[in-house]
Amino acid sequence: MIRDLQEKDIPRILDIWLDSNLEAHHFISDGFWFKNLPFVETTLPQSEVYVCLFHDSIAGFIGLSDDFIEGLFVASEYRSQGIGKQLLDYVKQEHHTLKLNVYIKNMRAVDFYKRNGFHINTNFIDEQTGENNYEMIWSKRQVL
Question: Could you list the residue range(s) of the whole structural domain that residue 88 is in?
Answer without folding.
Answer: 2-139
